[in-house]
Design a protein that fits this description.
The chain has one domain: Orthogonal Bundle (Histone, subunit A). It has four helices and two strands. By secondary structure, it is mainly α. GO terms for molecular function: DNA-binding transcription factor activity, RNA polymerase II-specific; protein heterodimerization activity; RNA polymerase II cis-regulatory region sequence-specific DNA binding. This is Nuclear transcription factor Y subunit C-2. Keywords: DNA-binding, Nucleus, Transcription, Transcription regulation.
């Protein structure tokens, strides 16, 4: 499938481009996958909000607070750091890593794989506008499978997993 949502199909020895929607079973399956991925992200964020609201113990962290504080102090403009700042930053980092992993895993599943690869992470970054700041950090590997941004019927970029916040 090309970036415009067309599938190449040989016609009398010549490859012709046919709209992706010309294959109803394929299109329907792709649409179902996108809807399922979007529901999973909505559930992920709902769970994150619920977990944040119910948190009473701020002493247990997945990321080392001393390391976070050290990174924060690497900026010469930072003089003092309140005790709560590394805790909040650690939680934000966890949520960032979790969302990027969810989106990357969705790409791996689209390609019928059960192993997360670098190109899955690159695809998640490419498909999500809010991750644009990472495009140069996680470069796309040339020659690997295509991670082009899915296109809508009109040919415009269509991000079925667009970034959003769940209203409380």
């Amino acid at each position: 499938m090309d970036p415009q949502g067309h599938v190449s199909q040989p016609v009398m020895g010549v490859a012709a481009t046919v709209p992706y929607q010309a294959y109803p079973p394929l299109y329907h399956h792709h649409q179902q996958q996108q809807e399922q991925q979007q529901q999973q992200l909505q559930m992920f964020w709902a769970d994150q909000y619920r977990e944040i609201e119910q948190t009473t113990d701020f002493k247990n962290h997945s990321l080392p607070l001393a390391r976070i504080k050290k990174i924060m102090k690497a900026d010469e403009d930072v003089r003092m750091i309140a005790a709560e700042a590394p805790v909040v930053f650690a939680r934000a980092c966890e949520m960032f890593i979790l969302e990027l992993t969810h989106r990357s895993w969705a790409h791996a599943e689209e390609n019928k794989r059960r192993t997360l690869q670098k190109n899955d992470i690159a695809a998640a970054i490419t498909r999500t506008d809010v991750f644009d700041f990472l495009v140069d950090i996680v470069p796309r590997e040339e020659g690997k499978e295509d991670i082009a941004v899915p296109r809508s019927i009109t040919g415009q970029p269509a991000d079925p997993l667009s970034y959003y916040y769940v209203q409380q």
